[in-house]
Amino acid sequence: MTNKEIKASKTFHIEIIETLSQIVEIVAEDEQAALLKAQELYRSEEVVLDSEDYIDTKYNIFT
């Protein structure tokens, strides 16, 4: 890298957002109970998202 290239360099903050998604079948009395059950399964790591559940990657630049 030359001195000119070093002086022209700037620091950027880039946010990388990776989206994973999985459909989980839940049996419950209503939607709220199903959501709570799904959250508990996720928190207790009974449902784990991995590279097979990959959907998309987005990049955002902050100034």
From TrEMBL:
One Pfam family, short name: DpnD-PcfM
Domain DpnD/PcfM-like C-terminal: 13-56
Source organism superkingdom: Bacteria
Name this protein carries in UniProt: DpnD/PcfM-like C-terminal domain-containing protein
